[in-house]
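User: We ran a pulldown and think these components assemble together. Before we commit to crystallization trials, I'd like a predicted model of the whole complex to look at. Sequences follow.
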Amino acid sequence: QLVSALHNLTRHVVYHGLTKAEDILSLFPESFHQNLKNLLTKIILENISAWRNEAQASQISLPRLVDMDWRVDIKTSSDSIIRMAVPTCLLQLKIQEDAALCGNNPVVSALTVELSKETLDTMLEGLGRIRDQLSAVANK
Amino acid sequence: VSLQQFSALTEVLFRFLTEPKEVERFLAQLSDFATMNKISLGPLKNIVKSILLVPNGALKRNLSSEQVKADFIALGLSEEKASYFAEQWKVNSPTLTRLAVGQTLMINQLIDMEWKFGVTAGSSELEKVGSIFLQLKLVIKKGSQLENVYVELTLPQFYSFLHEMERVKTSLESFS
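Assistant: Here's a predicted model for the assembly, 316 residues in total across the polymer chains.
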């Protein structure tokens, strides 16, 4: 019962984003032991940002990017042309499925994608536009 | 076959080579040519088939237009007609080469990319959040099917992704 009560208290504090000692103190009933109240408040305040970050990290979300790697190859021949020198890019994205669904065993899958130079240029254009939109929003 | 007829036929051939999907149009134009010049379609088709072998082999081996011309003369075509064909070849070869390269094997080719970004307002754990997220949808060709991949990135991840992609572009450019 004690553990459950503590759990509810901490969840309430994290949910509402309470950061001031007075707010937390006011949650306790009048007859609560003074020193214990202060001690608990102090511990909660210390941990609160870590708890908030963890809650945010384990939010439901689409699969998340955890890592990426790339390499550039030169294609020298194929069954349609015997000699050529065409550069191409291989991009490997490590994607982690929704953390909330996997619990303690996150499933990370690796996706390898090939891009030609034209595709890369188009992609960079798109990424540039995203960056511009982001700075426009940030400057508002 | 007169030079005029030959040049008309060459035009039809090159149009087909540069747009290999337009098979019906090619066949229709061939039969028009046959009726206009009073040649029967069967032998015309055979001749066209053997003529087409030359550009296809030339493309594979990156032959110059002089070599294409020499090949045709060796096959018994007159000097005039061979020159005409070689000229057409020179004009069309960038397009044809690009088509051939485009047909080369690509693993999991990226076809398209869509994105949206927004702000996470709240969740069941945190009443007010206010963090920015970016969602990318990548359309990938796996074999002959298209597959959609959805990925979410945080802002710092997005900036380092952009940075890495710019490095890739520099690398690709130094090799072209």
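Chain B is about 60% helix and 20% strand. That may be worth checking against your pulldown data before setting up trials.

User: Thanks, that helps.
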